[in-house]
Specification:
Length: about 130
């Protein structure tokens, strides 16, 4: 992937945080993210990108008999954001038809918006945590 096309993001932001530093990321996700960032006009702090099967969130899903999520496939990221900034970013995500899933967590200390570009018809398009 040519990261020079994405002046506001770097591969390090999307590496798995379990300690393995693995990185599988969809170019489509980064294309959409950069486009939204250009419109948003503010920095976007990536709090979670790729998650390998050893990542605590993904391993719990697998242990319970579920499938790994969209972070595992490299098609999702979480952006740390709150308040009016979250509202503004949420509007842009909702307006972009390339965004297929939006998760909203705006309570507690770790507030974020989840965004993914995984196309499948069997899940909600927007949800809250």
């Amino acid at each position: 992937m040519d990261w020079s096309k994405y002046p506001n993001f770097s591969p390090d932001e999307f590496k798995c945080q379990c300690g393995c530093n693995g990185l599988v990321i969809s170019e489509r996700l980064i294309d959409v993210l950069q486009s939204i960032r250009d419109e948003y006009g503010r920095s976007m702090r990536i709090t979670s990108g790729y998650r390998c099967s050893a990542h605590p969130v993904e391993s719990r899903k697998i242990e319970r008999g579920g499938k790994p999520g969209t972070h595992y496939s490299g098609m999702a990221c979480d952006v740390g954001v709150s308040g009016k900034d979250a509202y503004d970013l949420l509007k842009l995500m909702c307006a972009d038809d390339r965004v297929k899933g939006i998760g909203v967590n705006q309570k507690g200390a770790s507030r974020f918006l989840h965004m993914d570009v995984k196309e499948d018809g069997n899940r909600p398009n927007i949800w809250s945590y």
